[in-house]
Specification:
By secondary structure, this protein is α+β, with helices and mostly antiparallel strands. The chain has one domain (3-232). The chain is 30% helix and 11% strand. The chain contains 8 helices and 6 strands. The chain has helices at 22-27, 58-67, 96-103, 146-151, 159-166, 180-186, 202-215, 222-232; strands spanning 41-43, 53-55, 120-124, 131-134, 138-142, 175-179. The strands form 3 sheets. A two-stranded antiparallel sheet has the order 1-2. It has a two-stranded antiparallel ribbon with strand order 3-4. Helix 2 runs antiparallel to helix 8 (222-232). The chain is globular, with a radius of gyration of 17 Å. The relative contact order is 0.20.
Length: 235
């Protein structure tokens, strides 16, 4: 099963490395299980409802939210094509969408040889708890949507950095296989505007959102920050 290899927590030292390109920051990250006995701990092992497992420390999550830059979103000029996506950046013969489908399949029967065709497996959609067996019923969602990323800082990135973001598979929460209906419901909304119906996944959802924003040096707007803090306080 490939999901167990998708584990990445960026060291806090990266947050101070403002002079590097975004892609370089990600390349410099240390791979391995998160956690040292304190704070939130995460891994790429499947949980009941998500392709990752996290034990959320509410105090640490709150501190991480408070550490995010606050800025008004600047969505002018956004176009999805500015984030070249579903690329085979690792050269394994599978595009990023198919890589995620194989990695997050719970049947354990799919491999890279199954790329470029309809897949039959088992996936659990974190957003609505649905079990899916046909890949055509799934979307691969950018946990922090492309438009949200654009308005939160990616407007200033290079095309190469935006492609790296759009296809990134260094952890199990950046790209996530979910039902098409739940992905369309979420669209490009942030947690002030949309959350999964199942409150049981809210802490993991907010944690993953904050992780992506932190890893990629993305800002939050005032309403988003307030909502994140409110959810963190309930964890």
């Amino acid at each position: 099963m490939r999901a167990s290899r998708l584990v990445l927590l960026l060291p806090l030292a990266l947050l101070a490395a403002g002079c590097q390109d975004v892609a370089d920051l990600i390349d410099d990250a240390t791979t391995g299980p998160g956690g040292s006995g304190t704070g939130s701990e995460a891994s790429g092992e499947f949980s009941d409802t998500a392709p990752f497992t996290v034990t959320v420390d509410p105090a640490q999550l709150t501190a991480d939210i408070e550490a995010l830059a606050v800025a008004e979103e600047a969505n002018d000029g956004y176009d999805r094509s500015l984030f070249p996506h579903w690329k085979d950046d690792d050269g394994n013969g599978c595009d990023a969408r198919d890589d995620v489908l194989v990695a997050q399949d719970r049947s354990g029967n799919l491999t890279e040889a199954d790329c470029d065709a309809a897949m039959t497996g088992e996936w659990i959609s974190m957003y609505d708890g649905e079990t899916v067996t046909a890949s055509g019923d799934l979307d691969i969602d950018h946990f922090v949507p492309l438009k949200e990323a654009w308005g939160s800082g990616a407007v200033d990135w290079t095309t190469e950095d935006r492609q790296a973001y759009a296809n990134y598979q260094g952890n199990a929460w950046h790209l996530i296989a979910v039902t098409a209906s739940s992905n369309r419901s979420k669209s490009d909304q942030d947690p002030a505007e949309w959350m999964p119906e199942d409150a049981a996944v809210h802490c993991a959802y907010v944690w993953a959102w904050v992780e992506v924003k932190t890893e990629w040096h993305l800002s939050v707007d005032e309403a988003e920050r307030a909502a994140l803090l409110d959810y963190a306080g309930q964890c």
